[in-house]
Amino acid sequence: MNAPSDAEPPPAGLLGQARALLLRTMTFYRDDPRTAGWLRTRLERLSEPLRMAVTGRVKSGKSTLVNALVGTEIAPSDTEERTQVNTVFRYGDEPRITVHTPHGTQQHVSRGKLDPATIRDLQRWRPDEVARLVIETPSPGLQAITLIETPGVASTAVQETGRSALAQILSEADAVLYLTRQPQQTDVQFLHSVHELRVARRAPINTVLALSRADEVAAGDEDALETAERRAARHLEDPKIRSFTQHVIPVAGLCAQGASTLDRQRFEALRALAALDGTRIEDQLLSAERFTKATEPEGVDAGTRQTLLNELGLFGLRRALDLLAQGVGEPTRLRDALLEESRIGVLQEAVHLQFVERQEALRARSVLMAVDMVLRAHPRPGSRQLRGELDRLLANAHEWDELRVLSGLWSGQLRLPHPLRQEAEQVLGARGPHPGVRLGAPPQAQPRELVERAGALARRWRALAADPLFDRAHRQAARTVQRRCERLLLTLTGGG
Ligand SMILES: Nc1nc2c(ncn2[C@@H]2O[C@H](COP(=O)(O)OP(=O)(O)OP(=O)(O)O)[C@@H](O)[C@H]2O)c(=O)[nH]1
Ligand SMILES: [Mg+2]
């Protein structure tokens, strides 16, 4: 691949400029096939779906959440430590499992079907035997985003190969979904360590923190998720956590997985249980043991009880029976109601808004991280010029600032009065990227009107950026909006 010639128009936007720098870096290292090849894979990824790592504590529910997000059971989950190997779940026209060895070879293990037992076995290989597993399946849930489940932080696999292997796979992902039941120092330290790289520090926009297994909070009480939401809000107040994420979202992955795979047979069993007299069923649901050992009604045997418990958890089971008792009488309605209870939709929406919709900014981040890593690892005469270009791009990466402001507004971390909030979101592109939309102008607005609007908005936000009643974070946010208004003005008057 050649660098773009002088005749090509200058690339637009941060991603275009990052891509051009990647191409120049590839050309610069063309006599070093390994480095150039590594950079080429980064370039090729720009035409593939966004990559999100699903990582976090051992047994934090990563595999279960992958299944819940995809809507089918493709990631084996277990009570024993299981996922030892980085496992990529991506869209493919037909189901296929491919093993990548640490020596760079690939082997197609199975084609045409995904056998959970095979995946389970392969995930137990050691990282020095299997570098990664790639599971392809034609699931719509994977069309916009590829998921990469990593071994748990502090798992045996990670201890053996060192944290750098995990940091490496995280640096290969455009976005990170980090799972922990309760954020502790280890989680915060780990997330800080992966944000140590310069580019990552400049753009802390790629992480969502999930408080997983949230149904277990408060002993699986029916208010478990509300309690977890209050905890999440408190964590978001913590400056250490806020330095790498603006989203802390509780989720009950098991309940979501169980709901999305609920079949008619289990639905009927749930219905039979819900038909029992209120106090008798409440008594059974006091503990998992009571529930599995209970004998009423006759039609629901011990095996079915265990399956229901494994697939929904005690919380999911209690909520399902409550919903049935309240008259939710259709499998699809029960499924939707349980999905809502699980908060999986809130998480999916955050992933969509933060990652999928904003993928250009995230991809630019990944590309610049790759260039930074290469320039650091292989400095040579002449690479200073590339470094200078990287520095300039980083200094002018306003898209990242804008994304942070938008995330802050959405997560409630930044609080602006209603009309200002709406205006800020609009200017920053939340409703669409076109100048007219950003300026809130009617579709038939004349260029002159757009220029006037941009000028007025720029003045308003400049004043807000200097408003002593705002704290520093809000003044900075206002400056980001102001800068975008000025850029719009420049574009509209033919200067940009
Ligand atoms: N109650 C409850 N249990 C869960 C939830 N998610 C997972 N589990 C259970 O926790 C255990 C581990 O779940 P996995 O999804 O395999 O967790 P993991 O993080 O992938 O585990 P490793 O890959 O081995 O680190 C299983 O027994 C799951 O059924 C949840 O949301 N609620
Ligand atoms: Mg797992």
Automatic annotation (TrEMBL):
Membrane-crossing ranges are: none
Tell me the keywords, alphabetical order: GTP-binding, Hydrolase, Membrane, Nucleotide-binding
Q: What is the lineage of its organism?
A: Bacteria, Bacillati, Actinomycetota, Actinomycetes, Actinopolysporales
Full protein name:
Isoniazid inducible protein IniC
Q: Which InterPro entries match?
A: Dynamin_N, Mitofusin_fam, P-loop_NTPase
**What Pfam families would the database entry show?**
Dynamin_N
Location in the cell: Membrane
Alphabetically, the GO molecular function entries are: GTP binding; GTPase activity
Per UniProt, residues of the Dynamin N-terminal domain are 53-184
Cellular component terms, GO, for this chain's entry?
membrane
